[in-house]
Design brief:
The chain has 111 residues and is mostly helical. The chain is built from three helices and two strands; from the N terminus they run H-H-H-E-E. The chain is rod-shaped.
Length: 111
């Protein structure tokens, strides 16, 4: 009797990689970090926490956290500087009185 050759094996396909938990949230946080730092910081921390619980890396969430902190500090310093400059101008106008004053080539208009 002749033996029947075995049937060819089905081609092996790579399994689709499982989605990393928090990856999409990390990307959203990264985009928001340029505009809404506090929201992006919170979302980035949540996304990073979800990924770490699953044992996966989440680079977008980590970058979002870092950028949110950096841009938040820049925003706070800028607003603080503007407030300080406004307060200094207000104090100077109180000293000078109403009118237009030129001091060292800088024109101040006080009402």
């Amino acid at each position: 009797m002749s033996e029947v050759p075995p049937a060819p094996a089905a081609p092996a396909y790579a399994a689709t990689p499982a989605a990393v938990p928090g990856k999409t949230l990390g990307i959203v946080a990264l985009v928001l970090s340029f505009f809404f730092q506090l929201i992006a910081l919170i979302l980035g921390i949540v996304a990073l926490s979800q990924s770490r619980k699953a044992g996966a890396k989440n680079t977008p969430a980590l970058v979002a956290i870092i950028l949110s902190i950096v841009f938040g500090i820049i925003w706070i310093v800028t607003v603080g500087g503007l407030i300080a400059a406004g307060a200094a101008l207000l104090a100077q106008c109180q000293d000078l009185g109403p009118g237009v004053h030129v001091i060292e080539g800088v024109t101040y208009t006080c009402s």
